[in-house]
Amino acid sequence: MARYNHQVVEKKWQKIWEEKGTFRTSSDYSRPKFYALVEFPYPSGDGLHVGHPRPYTALDVVARKRRMEGYNVLFPMGWDAFGLPAENYAIQTKIHPAVVTERNIDRFRKQMQSLGFSFDWSREVNTTDPNYFKWTQWIFLKLFEHGLAYKKEMPINWCPRCKIGLANEEVVDNGCERCGHAVETRVKNQWMLKITAYAERLINDLDLVNYIERAKIQQRHWIGRSEGADVTFKIKDTQETLTVFTTRPDTLFGATYMVISPEHPVLETLKDRIGNIDAISAYQEEARKKSEFERAELNHEKTGVRVEGLMAINPVNNKEITIWVSDYVLMSYGTGAIMAVPGHDQRDWEFATTFGLPIIEVVSGGDISEAAYTQTDTGTMVNSGFLNGLDVDQAKAKITAWLQEQGLGVPKVNYKLRDWVFSRQRYWGEPIPLVHCKSCGWVPIPEEELPLRLPDVTNYEPTDTGESPLAKIRDWVETTCPSCGGAAERETDTMPQWAGSSWYFLRYTDPNNDQELASKKHLEYWMPVDWYNGGMEHTTLHLLYSRFWHKFLYDIGVVTEPEPYQKRTSHGMILGENNEKMSKSRGNVVNPDEVVEEYGADTMRMYEMFIGDFEKSVPWSTDGVRGCKRFLDRVWKLKDTMQPGDTYSEALEAKMHQTIKKVSHDYESLKFNTAIAALMTFLNDVHQVGSINEAEMKTFLILLNPVSPHLTEELWELLGFGGMLNEQSWPQYDEEKTIAQTIAIGVQVNGKLRGDVTVNLDDTQEVAREKVMANENIQRAIEGKTVVKEIYVPGRIYNIVVK
RNA sequence: GCCGGGGUGGCGGAAUGGCAGACGCUACGGACUUAAAAUCCGUUGGGCUAAGCGCCCGUGAGGGUUCGAGUCCCUCCCCCGGCACCA
Fold this sequence. Notes:
By secondary structure, the protein is an alpha/beta fold. The protein contains 26 helices and 32 strands. It has 4 domains: 6-24 and 32-140 and 498-575, 3-Layer(aba) Sandwich (Rossmann fold), CATH 3.40.50.620; 225-415, Isoleucyl-tRNA Synthetase, domain 2, CATH 3.90.740; 584-737, Isoleucyl-tRNA Synthetase, Domain 1, CATH 1.10.730; 741-802, Ubiquitin-like (UB roll). The strands form 9 sheets. Strands 11, 12, 13, 14, 15, 16 and 19 form a 7-stranded mixed β-sheet that branches. The chain has a 5-stranded parallel β-sheet with strand order 2-1-25-26-10. Helix 16 links the parallel strand 25 and strand 26 (567-571). The radius of gyration is 33 Å and the shape is globular. The two termini are 64 Å apart.
């Protein structure tokens, strides 16, 4: 028989599927739907590497199975195509990013198609397409209209040599990624999105969805909700006050000084009263120079300067306490000021120890001369006036009520989550559709004028001032105010890459709509996404941003579901054969094209699923690829020995039902490796038996089809089974028939395996015991001992306890 | 430091508290071949062994619960990923 020629057969079926529109999503909305989503890639110049197909194949398997189960399946693909690499390439080569992007997309698409994914290519979206980003801009305008977009001074990473603002990922070891020069912090007025307004709902609604637990935990952690109180301290002899956020208002009697962040505004408003303003300014300057990295890397040695001339009043006992400036207090969290309770906060303790400040114990139970005592579940209040003798929880409640009565404080919930910096000083992103008018302020451009396109430029370098390259295109920047008709200037910052990916899954439901981002009808049917798989690196930001946008769109009535993704799973990385992350510089990149060429797409897909635990990282192995190829070759040869038969043979019936059960279940629970192992085991059993019959062959091919679709379709056709394989129904199993009637079970004596016996499944313990006791090994093992107890678990184990 | 995920043969990995190592790879032996590749068959956790079965040890370390622990509980060690003084 002819050897299997994967190159010819795979091309053949890819062509047939495309011509017949086999995987086009149906418009029959009376059928149950299944929306499978994988993260759309950034189409880089390097093309696909073998890590990409792992999640694509996984959900392709599920999508193909669902179609055979009668679902109307939406399984789309697109391009997250704005981004830095194309822009950096443009700076070097002067080639327009759109040109490069299109070239890269064509390459990616071709590579994906060669792998036989069942994407509905008619629904492809591209974030850089004006017909797409028109709606990204539209959503931004809605956010702006609803007061969720605002401008604020925010620090950026600045390279003084390249004169360019850098994204966090472009900062390597505190240096600029391209020139190595030390990166500084610069303050720029930037667009912000008020995601914090949704913090509570983003936490609570995690209860509505089925995400892998670690993803939920990461999200909760990132949002970082904490309950406490805002407490106001007066500054002596001034009208100013300092408000602090604390989660431990119970320790207020232990507050022996205050610390404010170097950026705190009171340093400006009261600077005339500050005795050592020069020292303070010097400290501020030092803090400004420190990058995030430096702050993080240093071993947290506390630095700071006392603010001379200012004293604060502790509201519970009217004691005067000193005020300090230190960079361990962050302006971006809470109020930028803290009350320091060195007895019960480790950071405050370190600071107080460094500067010789008083430490007072207010919760007993620890030794505050050694370390701060931070336990809250044990301990009793001391040195705390009317709180003495209470436990921590009681004290918290009492002091919070008291502060409220006195008008000195209010209960407060704080979040670590910060608003989303939405500006980039870059060319290759969606233009922000606002103009600035001297008399009207920021004015949105009219919706009819969307999309606001990028102007053509010749030079993609940012300006000396750190503004985007767009700032230099004066005839684009200068415009008229849509509101008053006067002279106005366009915003020249563009949106971050996160923007386009925050709603792309909505567009897939109705990709060509030019009236709305997607129509209600389509959204209602398809949303939410039933299963979304992506990398763990996107579980915080991308997931949170897109959930935020979706909730906003829900609030304004565009979408009808509160949450975009019903289920979220994650895949592990594929490493190089040397167990290191694949990268060009390490020289361990495996190109999927070569694998497809030599072994075929079916082998590639199977290996990617068989390689190991889907959720974990795993090194690539060329030998492992060959193993999968061998298996498929053996499947191919089955056709030569196939026997007639329209029911499963007696010899394989139980195995067949077990295999259907195992494979069906494992495909659903990300255990593709064990599903394939079960198929391999079945094939081994076929070889034991000597032949496979037609009924078994059909079932086997259907089970294998989602993983290796080309070869199975070809065999289906060659064997004349009728129709196309992908049109068949997913096989059913009979639970009764999965259970073998006789089974060998282990026999233990005192928990140690001493032999095995074959029993019938419905044997009583009496019958089983007779068989056990007839076994010579068992007789020897219990000889001369007293049987104390016997445990029989049918189908599992027989354990005899002896003394 | 905190959070999350792990630690099982030479390797990737299996195992609702019930025969640890399924399945695949590698390696070794054999068949086929002038030969090699491919393919097929067999062996493959370590040790002991009278060669007959069998016995001992073994899932990062130590303790515990249980008739029975890779799996549950406690203490500790190591690896990977994420976060960075969050008041």
